[in-house]
């Protein structure tokens, strides 16, 4: 289950970065805050 948590977190972050690179989306402060919340919630 620990590996599943880490892989889900990495997949979420990678998807956001990939969408910014491939589709030209901007990574806003709100997006970074959202990723931080997801990261913290997955590791509790």
UniProtKB/TrEMBL annotation:
Keywords: Membrane, Transmembrane, Transmembrane helix. The chain crosses the membrane at residues 13-40. This is Uncharacterized protein.
